[in-house]
Amino acid sequence: MRVFIAGLGTETNMFVPFPTGRRGYEEFGVFRGDATRHPPRSFTGPLHVWRRRAEERGHQVIEGLLTFAAPSGTTVRSVYEGYRDEILEGVRAALPLDMVLLNMHGAMVAEGYDDCEGDLLARVRAIVGPKTIIGGELDLHCHISQQMIESADVLITYKEYPHTDPMERAEEVFTICADAAEGKVKPVMARFDCRMIGHYRPPVEPIKSFVDRIRALEGKDRILSISFGHGFSFADVEDVGTRMLVVADGDKAKAAALAERLGRELFAMRDVAVSKFLTPTEAFDRVASHNKGPVIIADRADNAGGGAPGDSTFVLRALLDRGIGPALFGIVWDPLCFRIAEEAGVGATLDLRIGGKCGKTSGDPVDLRVTVKNIVRGAQQTYGPVKSPLGDMVWLSAGDVDVVVNTLRTQLFHPDAFEALGIDPTSYRIVVVKSAQHFYNGFAPIAAEVLYVATPGAANPDYVNLPYTKRKTPFWPKVADPFA
Fold first, then answer.
1. Within its chain, how far is the Cα of 14 from the centroid?
2. SS3 category, 301
3. Under 8 Å between Cβ of 140 and 161
4. Would the pLDDT of 265 be above 90?
5. pTM here?
6. What does the buried/exposed string (b/e) look like for 110-137 if buried means 16 or more CB atoms within 10 Å of the residue's CB?
7. Cis omega (within 30 of 0) on the bond before 206?
8. Residue 63 burial class via C-beta count within 10 angstroms: exposed 0-12, middle 13-18, buried 19 and up
């Protein structure tokens, strides 16, 4: 068989004031047919799996374009169309094909395209025809559109958040698609709109048990795969929100019935299933009530993994005003601040203006007198089974508060990001991490407590007041019972 593999994606926050352009993709890598010749990264890993599995079966692999950008604002139209058309040209050149496997995000929006994944899949289908099997892997923070499921044969999302399972889901995509290409199964898909918008945490109850039940249903009674699409709330698109997606073997009615049953089960536990957020004042009150440490405070609204800039100062200002320490704060995306500190050098003491540079959702800059404690260039942090780049980093000490600043916009995944500078996070009473949930697996083992904070940042989980204009159906929590 002939198997074409490629990928294109980003997670688009339509409520931030800056676009995603070509540089955003180039920073994380643009691979033109050679992604699998390099060590696997967070978004190239699935292609490594697909190549290995296909070649083990003696299939011919044709590898196309792969590029992803860090979550950010709407992608520039010409950039999306250029990368999309490169993939499509690769598909045409590779014909005839038995399988096309695409690694996508599922929440990519470009100028003129609210559903980039649906657009890409539909165009691939138009080229390869109805008999070629098309499979796709998605982040669970995706918009599962009708066009996507009509254009593909198999779509599967991650199950875990933090995303520890992209490789496993890639294995699943390949197995079902290969079986379909060989005529062993006939995958059909159905989705159910849970009519919810929320933030969910698979490592903790009750979502942990819900995901375990989903796993237990797979591989039985002709159910091939089940995906719990959390949705990505910071996009004004028709398909924003939580959805269940079921892939069944030849029985679409069975897939639809199970998707609805699971979706309504999730909706029934909505009050305990979604994450709860504190204000900075409430979080610091909790810290002040005991002397245990470190308490990990997640600055969810400035999570670069949700498209926020990563330079907001709301929590930092509250921390400084409260005077609770010792505290560690990071990672703040501020290349200008880094450059000034780098010029001063390790050991220098100077006045620095930190953060607050990307608009009103970043807050006001914070002016501090700091000492430059250490500088690291080309730093990396652990992201599941692979390493993720951080750019250059500097450790700034301002009395009882230490701040880590970097040059590559990304969220914090793991304590080794701090350790690269010689910082021991366990030596602090408070550690503030700019992340929504990906920090959890690395930091929970060292935490006395984990708290989640919301602020007016660009990824503020105030779903009731987000300015949606395109969603046609009501949703909870804006409406108490959207099924009524």
1. 15
2. helix
3. yes
4. yes
5. 0.94
6. beebbbbbbbbbebbbeebeeebbbbbb
7. yes
8. buried
Q: Where does 400-483 have alpha helices with state H? A: 416-419, 440-443
Q: Is the peptide bond before 331 cis (omega within 30 degrees of 0)?
A: yes
Report which of 400, 153, 444 is spatially closest to residue 295, judged by C-alpha positions: 444
Distances (CA, A) of 121 to 124, 129, 353: 5, 12, 46
DSSP 451-462: EEE--SSTT---
Pairing of strands 223-229, 295-299: unpaired
| All residues at 6 or more sequence positions from 141 whose CB lies less than 8 Å from its CB, including other chains | 11, 105, 106, 107, 161, 230, 231, 232
Residue 180's identity, in one-letter code, is A
d(CA 237, CA 5): 28
Is it the case that residue 293 has pLDDT exceeding 90?
A: no
Please give the single-letter amino acid code of residue 166: P
Amino acid at position 115, single letter? D
Q: How far is CA 215 from the centre of its chain?
A: 21
- The answer to whether 345 touches 397, Cβ cutoff 8 Å, is no
pLDDT for 295 beyond 90: yes
pLDDT, mean over the chain: 96
SS3 106: coil
